[in-house]
Amino acid sequence: MEKTKKLHYAWLILAACFLLNMTVHTMVMQVSSLYMVPMSEDLQVPRTLLSLQSVVMAVGAVVTAPFWGKLYKKHDARYVLALCTAVTALCTIGRSFMPNVAGILILAAVKGVSFTGNSVLPISILLTIWFRKKRGFAVSAASLGISAGTVLFTPVVERLISVYGWRMSDRIVGLIMLVVMIPCSLLIIRSNPAAKGMRPYGAEEGEAQAAAKGKPALTGMTFSEAKKSPILYLFLLAIFGMVFATGAALQIPAYLTDIGYGSAVAAKVVSAYSAVAIFGKLLLGSVIDRYGEKIGSVYICTAGILAFICFVLAENKMFLYGMILFWGLGSGITSVLPALLTSKIFGNRDYGPIYGLVVSVNRFGGVIGTVLVSLLFDITGDYTIIWPMCVASMAVTLVAILFCLGRSAKVQAEG
Predict the structure, then answer these.
(1) What would the pLDDT profile of 203-239 be if each residue is shown by its tens digit?
(2) What single string gives the DSSP state of each residue in 229-252?
């Protein structure tokens, strides 16, 4: 009886994933905009040139994500994660010594490769392996580390930059990554429950026998089978559709300012839907745990469609509030849903390599969405055509997901 009362090790894995999001993800992605102005002034270069860092990092992610997926399958996750964290942190520290943009962009390319190996990809792989029950909650809870890190570190980094300059801030931030996540990776992270002589949290008895032999119960397609299946390519289209729309939604502050609300109101709207998003991510995970991926997909895509309809009508304050509500509820569509759908549709047999492809398309779609929206705005002068495109994109995403889920269930039943 004593044993059953012990905290399952899966929860420590979740805590480590939360911490990874709170530190590394936040330091690399969420506070990056704080450096734009001071770096531009120090280096005497336009901000658009410095913004190429995010493009270069995205290219690195698109190219190498499948490679990292395979690496996590073959090697001990704690060492791979520690290596990726070390390289990411050292690139951050190294940027502080760069005298020009060329050196900064080279380091951004390297960081893009290493960051892919210690952000959403390993977190999704680890939580999929360690959780059978409450997997939706685990993925959504880990994603809240980004929200917590943004709240905690944004004022800290802003203060470091204003008092000590961006170069010293980079060095401190890089050191925080090293000090927090290297020990955490080596001491807590384990590739699978068998490494601790356990079975996944919520595993069935049949899986217990497999775990006892040191082998996790494997289900679903191999990577080779997935590449030959139309299900994979339709699923990747669904991923592209959802991240295209969410990439476009990054223009919310500019859009609200353009239609007359002003920058102060726009900032409050962003804060408001970000607060709703905390609840929204947990709600999505709970819906999927209780009702399944199909109902979860219908719920989240419907919230996204309603949000973009509200975008179109946002000059009316009632629809502005609707936008805050529905976009906050729908925010988990790219951070929570892809990981859970990949597991449901393709199983865990080759989850890492397959999810690596998903991450590649995720990053690519986000960049395309942001760039295309900016281009369309430059051509048309407003957002009239953009939000209806996002409504259509979310609708196509939902149809594609439902088809993939149905087809996958049929394939598994036949197998």
Answers:
(1) 864 455 555 544 556 778 888 999 999 999 999 999 9
(2) -HHHHHHHHHHHHHHHHHHHGGGH
